[in-house]
Write a structure and sequence with these properties.
By secondary structure, this protein is mainly alpha-helical. It has one domain. 88% of the residues lie in helices and 0% in strands. Helix 1 packs antiparallel against helix 2, helix 1 runs parallel beside helix 3 and helix 3 packs antiparallel against helix 4.
């Protein structure tokens, strides 16, 4: 027998030995492998189910968020419309008031509303809502005094004082 044949036989025995050991290992561990495959299939099914549930929850949360944002936008529009109405009432009740002053009061109210509406911090939002409410009540006081037969005034003094106090 020649040296190359010996090497060939050696490698052949080596490969057959590895195959035999692998087959033996496979037979000995087949139940464990089958169990692991089964667990993998169960885990994959559970994961798929959880992902489907998460996807449903995400879609529903998106839908709720969209509905809430639409409602918030509608309410914000109503507030802006009421501020426009307030400006028209001020121009009517204070006929001699310069229109730029009425526009400035309107702008101040709109800015307070935006600050209150869009504040990310809940505590700050409540404080800004209270400030907006107080401003609107001040305007209402000025308008109510004129409507109740009070002495005619050229300007809404309490409203202007409120704005001045905020500037200080």
């Amino acid at each position: 027998m020649s040296f190359p044949e010996d090497i060939g036989k050696f490698f052949s025995r080596l490969i057959n030995s590895f195959r035999g050991e692998a087959a033996t290992w496979q037979r000995e561990n087949q139940p464990e492998l089958d169990r692991l495959k089964g667990e993998k299939l169960v885990a994959a099914a559970e994961l798929k189910k959880r992902l489907e549930i998460m996807e449903i929850r995400f879609r529903e949360e998106c839908r709720r968020t969209q509905m809430e944002e639409e409602r918030q936008t509608e309410q914000f529009g109503e507030f802006l419309a009421s501020i426009d109405e307030m400006k028209a009432n001020m121009l009517e009740y204070y006929a001699s008031m310069p229109k730029p002053l009425a526009l400035m009061i309107h702008h101040h109210a709109a800015e307070l509303l935006k600050e209150a509406w869009h504040s990310p911090d809940a505590r700050e939002r409540v404080q800004k809502q209270a400030r907006f409410t107080q401003f609107m009540l001040t305007i209402t006081e000025d308008l109510t005094e004129l409507g109740n037969g009070g002495a005619p005034k050229a300007l809404p003094e309490k409203t202007i004082a409120f704005i001045r106090d905020e500037a200080d």
